[in-house]
C-alpha cells in the first residue's frame, strides 16, 4: 500500500497519489497483485545486456523499490519523466516521454518490465554508437512502420520544443522557417528521395553528421 499512498502532513490520513481516488487506487493495486511481473533470470539478462550480475542485482533492487509490481505503466513513466525533465513552468515533457516510453515498451503492452528497462539502459550506457542510433531511429519511427516520414520528424520536433518550453505547434501551425528546417534535415537523410527514410539511410546519414554524433555522446554521458 505504501507505493500508492502517502500520509497527509497535517491530519495523518492517507491520500492517493498519481491523481487517483482511494477506490481506484485500491482496485488497481488488487489487479496488480494478480499480475506481478517475474523478471528473466540474471544469466539471461547478462547475455542480453552489458551489465554484470552485481550491476543487475543493484538495478533490480532500485527498480523493485520504486515499482513493487515489477513494471512501470505508461502513466507512471510519464509522471516520473515530467518530474525530472520539466525545465521550467512552460515545459511540457509529456509528449517526449510518450516517445521514449514507446522505445522501452518493446512488447507494446503499455508496461515497461525490468528486462526491457535493463536492456535499453545498457544500450544507452554501454552500447555502441550504431546501437544508440538504432534506438534513435525507433524514437522517430513513431508508428513502428519500419521507416520515417516527414510528419514523424515533425512529431519529434514538436515534442522536443515542448520539452524546453517553446510551443511553436499550437493548433498544428508550424512556422515556415521551422518547416523548412525540418524538410532540409529530412531530405539530408532521405538519400533516394522516396519520401521515406529507411533504417539504413538513417544510420548512414547520422554517422556522416558530426553534430549528431556529438549529440549522441552527450546523451550517453547523461545516462
TrEMBL record:
Which keywords describe this protein according to UniProt?
Calcium, Metal-binding, Repeat
EF-hand domain span: 92-127, 177-212
What CDD domains is this protein classified in? Answer: EFh
Q: Extract the SUPFAM superfamilies matched here.
A: EF-hand
Q: Which GO terms describe its molecular function?
A: calcium ion binding
Q: Does the keyword DNA-binding apply?
A: no
One Pfam family named in its UniProt record: EF-hand_8
For the keyword Metal-binding, the answer is: yes
Q: What is the official name of this protein in its record? A: Hippocalcin-like protein 4
Amino acid at each position: 500500500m505504501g507505493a500508492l499512498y502517502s500520509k497527509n502532513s497535517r491530519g495523518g490520513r492517507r491520500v492517493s497519489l498519481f491523481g487517483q481516488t482511494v477506490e481506484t487506487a485500491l482496485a488497481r493495486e488488487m489487479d496488480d497483485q494478480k499480475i506481478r511481473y517475474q523478471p528473466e533470470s540474471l544469466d539471461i539478462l547478462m547475455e542480453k545486456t552489458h551489465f554484470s550480475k552485481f550491476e543487475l542485482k543493484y538495478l533490480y533492487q532500485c527498480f523493485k523499490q520504486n515499482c513493487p509490481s515489477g513494471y512501470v505503466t505508461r502513466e507512471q513513466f510519464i509522471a516520473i519523466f515530467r518530474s525530472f525533465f520539466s525545465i521550467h513552468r512552460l515545459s511540457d515533457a509529456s509528449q517526449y516521454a510518450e516517445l521514449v516510453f514507446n522505445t522501452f515498451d518493446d512488447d507494446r503492452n503499455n508496461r515497461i518490465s525490468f528486462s526491457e528497462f535493463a536492456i535499453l539502459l545498457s544500450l544507452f550506457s554501454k552500447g555502441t554508437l550504431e546501437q544508440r542510433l538504432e534506438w534513435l531511429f525507433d524514437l522517430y519511427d513513431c508508428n513502428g512502420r519500419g521507416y520515417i516520414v516527414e510528419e514523424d520528424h515533425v512529431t519529434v520536433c514538436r515534442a522536443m520544443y515542448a520539452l524546453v518550453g517553446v510551443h511553436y505547434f499550437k493548433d498544428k501551425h508550424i512556422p515556415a522557417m521551422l518547416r523548412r528546417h525540418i524538410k532540409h534535415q529530412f531530405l539530408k537523410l532521405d538519400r533516394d528521395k522516396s519520401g521515406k527514410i529507411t533504417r539504413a539511410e538513417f544510420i548512414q546519414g547520422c554517422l556522416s553528421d558530426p553534430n549528431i554524433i556529438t549529440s549522441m555522446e552527450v546523451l550517453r554521458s547523461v545516462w
